[in-house]
Design goal:
Length: about 500
DNA sequence: ACTCCTATAGGTAGGCTGTA
DNA sequence: TACAGCCTACCTATAGGAGT
């Protein structure tokens, strides 16, 4: 096979050679990225657009024609010594496009890799190292290598200022002395792996999620039983050891291994098939609830590029809340909700509407309540007239996650997770499975799509689904507490 | 992607006990 | 009585898990 290795495939190969083999030999076995992953990629492209604004005279290589045309145009632009976006070069079996090549003194070029993350990661070194190896091999003289990424301390005031939004990190030394020097060897090994008749035998391990979630994870991990040792709560070391000893099932862990009290509860539940109930702890938790009880949940979105004044990269902006109010223990809850519309900053209306609903006394119950309090405090920074009210909510807040992360209650169906998405079905039988919008990530992505993009034909339907989803979260919390009362 | 929180693990310091 | 060694408790750093 005449193999051409792109930068992305090089990084795939570093993560796992089995993945690399599949990419070349059985590409149909690799699932397409889901909508949430795609939204992250789109975000990256947008950041790239702002990075280009820092080089107003830059020229972008046109890749809409043939592969060779892109290479030819790149060569032409290199000879003209202008700033180039998406410059495409090949060397030996390697191919890459440079986000930005900037001509500098003495016929040199600076290489700039743009990322939408907020700091430097190991994988970025390999990424730039591959490019450095390739471009110098192709005859370019590279002076400095930079990673350009998001400065999350930037606060938007007026139009986006790309020079403040983005920061440049000099990685020249690491690239030249280390990461570019290992490319030749790595590529040779990768080519060997790709050309092999069968995929390389590689055990499952931490690399399946590092640095990226592998698309083949379902395939490689399918040999494990449904409830396996990897579900042990907060225990990632022991499962690998157990697997190597041939222990796959939670209820077959040999006694010689000491496990935490919570893990022990899990294992015991797996053996009996019954939930664990610490009625004393549950009672103590329930006794902290004061009525009227306000069950509260927010949905937020966070973009790399801050969309509004007084917001920062990746800072959560709330656009929706759902509140179920239970006046007296056991009475039917009353539902209040808000879903922002339009492209303006939703925070002022969100805060005003929420304050109206929340009353002045009684518990405020949220799942992972620190998230809701964080959002409220961030809003109060921008809208200081709400700070006192936010403080009063802080005094009323109760975290419904607590009895579950404490293992006051554990059901084997939770699969070692205390998330609402696991607790609710295990405890009440209610499920998110058949919902078109069934998790916060999708809710956030769909809201942004129909609100901020042209792709909004189904806006009415999406808004209805969002209302359903957020309402299910709070109603689910009501059901969970009702259920807990029965264990008291 | 990020961020916050917290459980856990590991390390250090201080105190106690036992032995010389 | 003094010293050494061990154990415990506390603190800190990190990794995992929750949310979107």
């Amino acid at each position: 096979m005449n193999i051409r290795l792109s930068k992305t495939k090089y990084l795939n190969g570093l993560q796992c050679k089995k993945l690399l083999w599949y990419i070349y030999n059985e590409p149909d076995a690799i699932p397409e990225p889901d909508a949430t992953t795609q939204a992250i990629f789109d975000q990256g492209h947008l950041v790239g657009e702002y990075a280009k604004k820092l080089f107003p005279n830059g020229v972008e290589v046109d890749h809409s024609e043939t592969f060779e045309a892109g290479l030819r145009q790149t060569r032409d632009l290199i000879s003209k010594r202008v700033s180039i976006f998406e410059a495409a070069l090949t060397y030996k079996r390697c191919y890459a496009r440079a986000d930005i090549l900037e001509p500098v003194a003495d016929d040199n070029w600076d290489l700039i890799e743009v990322k939408s993350s907020t700091d430097l990661k190991d994988v970025n070194y390999h990424d730039i190292g591959f490019q450095y190896y390739l471009y110098t091999g192709a005859g370019l003289k590279i002076d400095k290598c930079y990673l350009m990424c998001i400065d999350n301390s930037y606060v938007r005031k007026g139009d986006i200022e790309p020079c403040k939004l983005l920061k440049k990190i000099d990685v020249t030394d690491e690239i030249k002395t280390s990461y570019s020097t290992m490319v030749e060897n790595n590529v040779a090994e990768m080519v060997k792996a790709i050309n092999s008749k069968t995929f390389p035998q590689i055990d499952i391990g931490a690399h399946c999620n590092e640095p990226y979630d592998c698309p083949l994870i379902d395939k490689c991990w399918s040999f494990l039983p449904e409830r396996n040792v990897f579900f042990l709560y907060r225990n990632n070391k022991l499962p690998m050891t157990l697997i190597q000893e041939g222990v796959f099932e939670l209820d077959k862990i040999p006694e010689k291994y000491e496990i935490s009290a919570k893990n022990q509860i899990q294992v015991d539940c797996e053996k009996t098939g019954k939930p664990y109930i610490d009625s004393q702890k549950i009672k103590e938790f329930l006794d902290t609830i004061q009525y009227p009880a306000y069950y509260m949940d927010f949905e937020t979105f966070a973009s790399a590029i801050p969309m509004f004044d007084n917001s920062s990269p990746y800072k959560q902006i709330p656009f929706q809340f759902s509140v179920h109010v239970v006046k007296e223990k056991g009475t039917k809850p009353e539902h209040f909700s808000f879903l922002a519309d339009g492209t303006d900053d939703p925070r002022p209306e969100f805060m005003a509407k929420l304050k109206n609903v929340m009353g002045t006394k009684g518990s405020v119950i949220a799942f992972k309540a620190s998230f809701e309090m964080y959002i409220l405090n961030k809003c109060a920074e921008v809208l200081p007239e709400y700070q006192q009210w936010v403080d009063s909510i802080d005094e009323r807040i109760i975290d419904l996650l607590q009895p579950f992360s404490d293992f006051a209650y554990y059901h084997p169906q939770q699969d070692g997770s205390c998330s609402l998405k696991k607790v609710l079905p295990a405890l009440t039988g209610k499920s998110y499975d058949d919902m078109e919008i069934g998790d916060g990530g999708t809710a956030s992505a769909e809201y942004c799509r129909v609100t901020f993009t042209e792709d909004n034909k189904d806006k009415k339907k999406v808004r209805k689904l969002l209302e359903e989803y957020c309402g299910l979260d709070t109603m689910g919390m009501v059901d969970i507490v009702e259920q807990l009362y029965s264990f008291k």
